[in-house]
Predict the 3D structure of the following.
Amino acid sequence: MQRNQLSPEEAAEDFALPVAAIHEIIGYCEANRELIEMEAEEEKYRLEHREIRV
């Protein structure tokens, strides 16, 4: 939630999820940051090569 400045409680409310789910998501993202960044770069590459602006 750091990107959009929401607290876990605010994010839970916005996405209609339990706060525990938000904490699980945050933990996953922190533990797998490198993988997530690699997948995002791969997707960006694929979109750009289809001439889709990102």
